[in-house]
C-alpha cells in the first residue's frame, strides 16, 4: 500500500471514529459498559453497539470482556493515550474561543497600515483600554490589500485602511483625512518653499511604495491628476525607508508627515492637487460579531475626526 493511500485510509477512519472518542474514553475510565452508559446519559445497548462499531472501524480489538466489566487491550491503551490528548486539546480550544468572545477578557484581531503603528494606533488602544482593560488584541500591520484578504479569510475582525475599499461584502466608514506632503532633501531646489504644486516636481526622480500598497494607488492617482508620470527610481515597503532615501538625496516622495522629524528632509504642503488620503474602518457586516469586537468597533467609530489628531481633553 502506498503512503498516499495509507494516509487516505487513516483520514477516513479518523473521521468515522471522531464522534465515538468521548464514549470510548468513558468506557476506559469506568471499565464497565453499564456505568459508562449511565454517566453519558445513553442506553447501555447503544453504548455496546458504539464500542463494537469503533472496534470494527479501527480493525483491531480495543476492549476485552472480563466478567461483568471490560478492560483495555494493549491496542486500546495505546489509542486511549491519544484520545485523552485529543480531548484535552479540544477542551483547551473551546476554552480559548469562548474566552475570546467574552466581553471582559475577549480578543480583537485588528489590522492597520504600517504608517499608523508608531503613534495613532497605540494612542487609540490606550484610550480604549481605560474602560476595557481586560480585552486583548492581536495586531497585524500590513498593506491594505493584504489586510482585506486576511479579513475575508477570517483572520482579522477589523482594519484601518486607505484608500477606502468599495466592495459589496464590506462595511466601511471614513474616520479621518491624512495630508500627504512632497518630501524633498534639505538641499533640494524647492526646500526653501513652504507650498508647491505637485507638477513642479514632475522632472524629479521619485521614491514610492511598491505597487499593491494603498498609498501607492493614492499617489499614482495624484500624479495622474497633476498631469505627469513620475520617474520612479526606488520602490519600498516602509515609509521610513523612503524618507531615508530622500534624506540621502536619491529622490523625492509623497508621504504622510512622520511622527518625529527626519533630519535631512523637508515636508512641503502640496496645493494642487489636494494631496491627502482618507483613512477608514472596514469590517464584514455579515460575519457574527463578538462582544469585544463590537465594543472596539463602536469606540473607533466614535473617534471620527480625532483618529489622527486626538483631543486629550475629550479622552
TrEMBL record:
Domain HTH lysR-type: 24-73
InterPro entries: LysR_HTH_N, LysR_subst-bd, WH-like_DNA-bd_sf, WH_DNA-bd_sf
Keyword presence, Transcription: yes
Lineage summary: Bacteria, Bacillati, Actinomycetota, Actinomycetes, Kitasatosporales
Superkingdom of origin organism: Bacteria
Keywords: DNA-binding, Transcription, Transcription regulation
Molecular function per GO: DNA binding; DNA-binding transcription factor activity
Family: Belongs to the LysR transcriptional regulatory family.
Name of the protein described by the UniProt record: Transcriptional regulator
Pfam hit, one: LysR_substrate
An example Gene Ontology CC term for this record: protein-DNA complex
SUPFAM superfamilies found in the cross-reference section: Periplasmic binding protein-like II (SSF53850), Winged helix' DNA-binding domain (SSF46785)
Amino acid at each position: 500500500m502506498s503512503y498516499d493511500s495509507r494516509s487516505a485510509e487513516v483520514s477516513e477512519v479518523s473521521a468515522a471514529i471522531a464522534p465515538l472518542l468521548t464514549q470510548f474514553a468513558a468506557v476506559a475510565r469506568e471499565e464497565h459498559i453499564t456505568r459508562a452508559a449511565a454517566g453519558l446519559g445513553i442506553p447501555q445497548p447503544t453504548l455496546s453497539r458504539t464500542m463494537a462499531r469503533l472496534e470494527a472501524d479501527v480493525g483491531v480489538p480495543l476492549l476485552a470482556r472480563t466478567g461483568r466489566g471490560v478492560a483495555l487491550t494493549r491496542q486500546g491503551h495505546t489509542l486511549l493515550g491519544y484520545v485523552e490528548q485529543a480531548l484535552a486539546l479540544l477542551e483547551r480550544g473551546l476554552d480559548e474561543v469562548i474566552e475570546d468572545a467574552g466581553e471582559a477578557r475577549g480578543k480583537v484581531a485588528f489590522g492597520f497600515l504600517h504608517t499608523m503603528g508608531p503613534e495613532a494606533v497605540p494612542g487609540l488602544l490606550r484610550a480604549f483600554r481605560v474602560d476595557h482593560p481586560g480585552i486583548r488584541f492581536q495586531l497585524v500591520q500590513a498593506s491594505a490589500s493584504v489586510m482585506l484578504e486576511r479579513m475575508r479569510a477570517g483572520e482579522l475582525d477589523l482594519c484601518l485602511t486607505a484608500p477606502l475599499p468599495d466592495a459589496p461584502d464590506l462595511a466601511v466608514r471614513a474616520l479621518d483625512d491624512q495630508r500627504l506632503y512632497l518630501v524633498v532633501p534639505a538641499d533640494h531646489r524647492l526646500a526653501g518653499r513652504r507650498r508647491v504644486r505637485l507638477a513642479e516636481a514632475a522632472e524629479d526622480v521619485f521614491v514610492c511604495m511598491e505597487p499593491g500598497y494603498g498609498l501607492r494607488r493614492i499617489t499614482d492617482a495624484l500624479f495622474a491628476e497633476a498631469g505627469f508620470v513620475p520617474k520612479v527610481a526606488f520602490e519600498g515597503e516602509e515609509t521610513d525607508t523612503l524618507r531615508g532615501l530622500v534624506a540621502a538625496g536619491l529622490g523625492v516622495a509623497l508621504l504622510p508627515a512622520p511622527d518625529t522629524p527626519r533630519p535631512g528632509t523637508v515636508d512641503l504642503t502640496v496645493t494642487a492637487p489636494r494631496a491627502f488620503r482618507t483613512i477608514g474602518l472596514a469590517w464584514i457586516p455579515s460575519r457574527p460579531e463578538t462582544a469585544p469586537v463590537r465594543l472596539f468597533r463602536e469606540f473607533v467609530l466614535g473617534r471620527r475626526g480625532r483618529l489622527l489628531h486626538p483631543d486629550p481633553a475629550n479622552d
